């Protein structure tokens, strides 16, 4: 990362974050994010119970294609910007912070607008040819109409992460989820069905973008960064080559991530119908809820490693990662493993007996989450180093696995086949990144 010697002179080296400190911060973030995730999960439960598997599956298919397009267009600045913002904040480079914010918001908004245009131009063909649901095309466009405003969430979340405002980030996300829940419930009570749920979801995501942007602006203002939109982008010119590489690789990661999550839904909808597509989405939602703790710990680790990376030796980082794996990694993985046998009871109680078919798939997905939780710091390590290429290659390998075998798995075994493939792919990527991590931080480095 390019650095300004004059502006960083006298800046304090960020202290090492102990395993206990990371656990406390991650616990705060995870608790609040579980609240946000729980509200979103509750929304899915209400829709699934009131509209049934067929209706829930139809909503899943409507939202899958716009989401895939947006992910393919998005630069996903939340993967890149916290690294720069954390470093600039530690060095008190306020003008650079403002410039990076302007760049992030601008890129997110432009990519979201392009995604909206692409969905508007192709939705009718997708609905008619791929989904064979010709009357749903306009709902895809309506869902995409929220993208430009919703895109504000990404850079806003980057700011809150870089400032360590984990509780505030999660609470603002929770507020957005509450708004979405209320809108969806109102639409269902009014009898608006699938149309009402899709429109409410789109409006809720846009309002979440606004809520997070206001929260980020308050954090920036408190630290002396005002009117970032007036900042001069020329301040980031010395970093352009590095930024282009970072955003380029992060684009690959996001696009492949969208393929990994949305391709199974689209394939199941085409081969097995909306109902099985909806089952896969619910199983994925259960996996997402389970992965909240892993994600929270990873975000805290990313913020910590980004602030300290240029000031520490390889053996110091390796020691931190070893401690983090033992605590809180192993307990987090163990707690997730213990939750797996409870899934059948939770599904029957929460969703109803008609959804018990998702249990084996959801359990397989949660096994992969348990393994990933032990090594929660993996993505943070590569992001803090700026090694987006490694994450991009791992994501590409994962996507190739899903696309290459997904159609066959869906045709032969339906939802269960794709759930098993998704779980295996997640474990495969974790293994790949672990092998490379050992080469980055070899035993005895710096000692």
In helices, the fraction of residues equals over 70%
- CA radius of gyration is 22 Å
Derived structural class: mainly alpha
Distinct helical segment count: 17
Instruction: Please give the domain count.
Output: 1
Uncertain regions: pLDDT < 50 for 5+ in a row? 1-14
Q: Biggest sheet, open or closed, and with what strands and sense?
A: none
Report the mean per-residue pLDDT as an integer: 85
Strand runs, count: 0
Overall geometry comes to globular
CA-to-CA gap between the ends? 25 Å
Q: Would you mind describing this structure in some detail?
A:
This protein is mainly alpha-helical and 447 residues long. It contains 17 helices and no strands. It has one domain. The protein has helices spanning 5-8, 19-73, 81-90, 94-130, 137-144, 147-150, 152-162, 166-189, 193-222, 240-271, 274-290, 292-308, 314-339, 343-350, 359-374, 378-385, 388-440. The longest helix has 55 residues, at 19-73. Residues 1-14 have low confidence and may be disordered.
């Amino acid at each position: 990362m390019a650095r300004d010697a004059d502006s960083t002179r006298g800046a304090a080296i960020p202290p090492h974050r102990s395993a206990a400190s990371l656990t406390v911060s991650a616990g705060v973030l995870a608790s609040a994010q579980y609240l946000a995730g729980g509200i979103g999960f509750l929304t899915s439960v209400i829709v699934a119970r009131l509209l049934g598997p067929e209706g829930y599956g139809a909503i899943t298919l409507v939202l899958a294609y716009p989401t895939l397009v947006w992910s393919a267009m998005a630069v996903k600045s939340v993967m890149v910007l916290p690294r720069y913002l954390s470093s600039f904040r530690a060095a008190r480079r306020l003008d650079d912070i403002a410039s990076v914010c302007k760049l992030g918001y601008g890129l997110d908004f432009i990519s979201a607008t392009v995604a909206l245009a692409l969905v508007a131009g192709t939705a009718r063909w997708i609905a008619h040819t791929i989904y064979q649901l010709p009357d749903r095309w306009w709902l895809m466009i309506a869902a995409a109409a929220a993208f430009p405003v919703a895109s504000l969430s990404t850079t806003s979340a980057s700011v809150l992460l870089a400032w360590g405002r984990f509780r505030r980030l999660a609470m603002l996300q929770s507020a957005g989820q509450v708004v979405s829940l209320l809108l969806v419930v109102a639409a269902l009570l009014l009898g608006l069905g699938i149309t009402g749920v899709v429109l409410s979801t789109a409006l809720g995501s846009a309002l979440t973008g606004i809520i997070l942007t206001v929260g980020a602006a308050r954090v920036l203002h408190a630290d002396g960064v005002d009117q970032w939109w007036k900042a001069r982008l020329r301040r980031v010119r010395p970093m352009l080559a590095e930024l282009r590489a970072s955003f380029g690789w992060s684009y690959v990661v996001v696009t492949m991530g969208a393929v990994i999550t949305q391709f199974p839904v689209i394939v199941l909808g085409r081969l097995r119908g909306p109902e099985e597509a909806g089952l896969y989405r619910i199983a994925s939602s259960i996996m997402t809820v389970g992965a909240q703790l892993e994600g929270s710990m990873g975000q805290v680790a990313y913020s910590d490693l980004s602030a300290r990376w240029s000031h520490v030796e390889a053996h110091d980082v390796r020691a931190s990662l070893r401690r983090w794996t033992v605590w809180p990694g192993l307990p987090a993985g163990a707690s997730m493993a213990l939750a797996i046998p409870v899934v059948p009871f939770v599904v029957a109680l929460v969703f109803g007996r008609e959804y018990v078919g998702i249990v084996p798939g959801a359990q397989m997905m949660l096994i992969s989450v348990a393994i990933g939780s032990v090594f929660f710091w993996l993505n943070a390590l590569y992001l803090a180093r700026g090694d987006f290429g490694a994450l991009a290659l791992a994501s590409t390998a994962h996507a190739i696995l899903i696309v290459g075998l997904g159609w066959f798995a869906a045709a032969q075994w339906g939802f269960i086949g794709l759930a098993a493939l998704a779980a295996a792919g997640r474990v495969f990527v974790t293994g790949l990144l672990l092998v490379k991590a050992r080469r980055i931080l070899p035993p005895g480095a710096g000692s």
